Amino acid sequence: MSSYFADFASLFQQFDVAAAFWVNIKLTFFAAIGSMVLGSVLALMRISPIASLRWMGAAYVNTIRNTPLTIILVFLVLGVWSQLQINLSADFNQNFFRYAVIGLTVYHAAFVCEAIRSGVNTVPVGQAEAARAIGLGFLPSARMIIFPQALRGAITPLGNTLIALTKNTTVAAAASVTEISALMKTMIEFRPDVIIAVFLTVAVGFVLIVVPVGLLTTWASRKFAVVR
After folding, report:
1. Does the keyword Metal-binding apply (predicted)?
2. 184, 84 in Cβ contact below 8 A?
3. Residue 227 scores a pLDDT above 60
4. Which residues, other chains included, contact 223 with Cβ-Cβ below 8 Å and sequence gap of 6+?
C-alpha cells in the first residue's frame, strides 16, 4: 500500500496537475464573462418588442442548445482556424485557448439567455407598465427596472450554468487545449499502474472547484431573493 501511495505521489512530480486545473479555471473565468455579456444581449433580444429580434434570439438559442459543444469547438479549430487561417494569437497554444473560450462562450450564452429570461418572467408585468407610464423606452426600462430584478431571480439558474460551464471546460481538449482531461489521458497512458488514483485526483479536483460555486449560489439566491 505504501508503494502505491509513493507511485501516486510521483505523479505530481512527473505531471503538472495544478497547472492543468488552472487552465480549466481560466477557461471558466473568461467564458463566464463572455457568456454573461452575450447571454444578456440575447435575453434583451428575446424580450424585445421588435419581432425580428425576438426571432433571431430564439433561433440562436434553439440552434446552439441543440448543437453539441464538441461540434462547435471542432468547427472553430478545423473550420475557422485550419481552413480560414484566422489566428487569434501569435502563440500557438494561446491561439487554441482563445478559440476554446469563444466556443464555450457561444455555447453557454444560450443557457445564460434562458436563465435571465426565466428571471424576467418573475418580474411583475406592472413594473414594465409603470416604466412605460413615466416615459421610459424599452432599453432604459430593461436596464434600470427589469434586468436588476430579473438577475436577482435568475441567480440559481445562472449558478447552475456556471457549474455546467466549469465541467464542460474538459471538452476544450477537442480544441487542442492542454487542460486536465487531456492531461488525464496522458497520465493514464504513461502511468496505468495508478489509474484509479488518477481518476480520483481529477474527480476530487472538480469537486473542490464546483462545490464552492454551488454553496455560493445557494447563499446568494437566498440573500438577494426578491420578496413579493
Report:
1. no
2. no
3. no
4. none
In eight-state DSSP terms, residue 193 is: G
Helices (H), 121-225: 125-133, 138-141, 147-153, 155-168, 180-190, 195-223
Cα Rg of the chain (Å, integer): 21
Q: What residues contact 29, with CB distance under 8 A and at least 6 apart?
A: none
- 1: pLDDT confidence band, cut at 50, 70 and 90? low
Query: Among 95-109, 166-180, 200-214, which is the least confidently predicted range?
Result: 166-180
Can you tell me the distance from the alpha carbon of 118 to that of 125, in angstroms, rounded to the nearest whole number?
14
- Yes or no: say if 101 and 27 are a contact pair by the CB < 8 Å rule: yes
- CB of 160 closer than 8 Å to CB of 142: no
Which CATH number applies to 2-223? 1.10.3720.10
CA distance 186 to 170: 14
Domain ranges across the chain:
2-223
pTM of the model: 0.88
Distance CA 142, CA 131 (A): 9
Element (H, E) at 63: helix 51-65
Contact 35, 108 (CB under 8 A): yes
